[in-house]
Amino acid sequence: MxxxxxxxxxxxxxxxxxSVGAQARLPFDKPAEPFILKNGSSFSASGGNGGFDVSGSSxxxxxxxxxxxxxxxxxxxxxxxxxxxxxDLTKSTMEGALSTLDPHSTYFxxxxxxxxxxxxxxxxxxxxxxxxxxxxSGDANTYIVAAFPGSAAAKAELRYGDRIVAVNGERVVxxxxxxxxxxxxxxxxTMVKVTLLRAATNREETVSLRRGPVPQPxxxxxxxxxxxxxxxxxxxxxxxxxxxxxxxxxxxxxRQGMRSLVLDLRGNPGGIVDQAVKVVEKFLPxxxxxxxxxxxxxxxxxVWRSTNPTPETMPLVVLVDENSASASEIxxxxxxxxxxxxxxxxxxxxxxLVQSVLDLPAGSGLTLTTARYLTPAGRSIQxxxxxxxxxxxxxxxxxxxxxxxxxxxxxxxxDRKVFGGDGILPDEVVKLPSMSERQISLLDPMFFFVRxxxxxxxxxxxxxxxxxxxxxxxxxxxxxxxGNAALVSAFESYLMSHPEFNIxxxxxxxxxAFIGLRLRxxxxxxNFGSVSAQQVLIEDDAQAAKAIEALPRAAQLAQNxxxxxxxxxx
Length: 570
What we know:
By secondary structure, the protein is α+β, with helices and mostly antiparallel strands. The protein folds into four domains: about 120 residues, no CATH class; about 90 residues, Pdz3 Domain, CATH 2.30.42.10; about 200 residues, 2-enoyl-CoA Hydratase, Chain A, domain 1, CATH 3.90.226.10; about 100 residues, no CATH class. Strands 10-11-12-15-16-21 form a six-stranded mixed sheet. α8 packs parallel to α9 and α16 runs antiparallel to α17. It is globular, with a radius of gyration of 26 Å.
């Protein structure tokens, strides 16, 4: 491990050798800052301790010189050398070294590092609209899906279905939405010109928008899902505002009569562990262990305990899935081991490694695994990555080695059996069906149907004539949306008059339930925005239904745990 660390340190030297002498000391003695990452690069965690010592032998200096010379030779002699930048070589060198350590140690070039830090602060600067690619007649373009209330996009009346044609005069027809997104983002306060093909008029229009901070809250929605039952969607990671958001949501729902809670962590990639600990602390009594960190040395070891003398006692069910990772697994693991909540859904991702976050002088950054997390019962959250490739690891592809591997067994407060070494297994496993290829083929036609329907271009469908800027926590009622039968019938006629979608006849009968649900969802996006529209899907969600059903058993479990903890010596 010492040799590997030396090599990593050498490679870090190479990443800024042009501006810092080879003998310079790296800023590893800076305490690590917590951070959040999105799915696709790594899963999130918070930092451990810094304090790495890279002084000593001159051998790393010689290796660094050789690596720099090799990079120079590559740039001067490789057939693609004129296209290769020092940043490209540094990034690939660093990524190659870190990939031999674990899946979550990561190098970020300056642009990636800045983007990650912006996400950590729970905001970025842009126009305040969600966008997506949709395809018709073989042409894929980027469309406005929703404008966030109060944003520049909302003030300019950007609407569902408006197609983005150009940004600052540069045509983006046929571009991926991620490319368009990056062009729309920029420094706070700067202007951007966006040319749109308006969905309502089918005419091009150019608007000037002032970029501004766009909040990215941890909790996009919270509402009363059934009488007396609150629902909090803590689905967008744990950032610096999570605890405040959670407190506000709890207070508002209590005022609306909440007596029990469904906490949704599905898709939550993790984030700042201290914020996750504060969420757990709301429900566990003082001195209860929440999570333990174990590192290479005693200095890296730490135990988080609740300091709350008056925790919430309401029944609690936590929803998780295979994309619940890191800090969200800490929440689920603590609630399960302490028997404070029932866990419902699918096995979580299994990311229990701790990354220290290191700023590098040239503006890049490094996240290096320095410890692992254990649940209160001593279970490791981390899934094995030594017997599988990165693709299999990140896409949950089981291997024969993983299937045959024995798992660590532990006991909860009330002596229930739980297992470690492969994420958090729910108490109630409920798998949601994946979309079939036939269903996926309907998504683009449904978008264009609602786009046309909302603007009065679909026979037999009367648009609402309104786009509602709903406030946080607004509850969509069934009466706010058209019925399934009317939507499916109108959609069937639409497909018949639009052969360019190439959808087989009869599909509206075999997929009527799916089509009705997804069309109501699209209509809700057009009328209420993408956040509140999720309520339509939740109403037909088998995992959410099981969570509501499990609340009485969750209440009994918590009562049993409280009795055990009240006994002398506990």
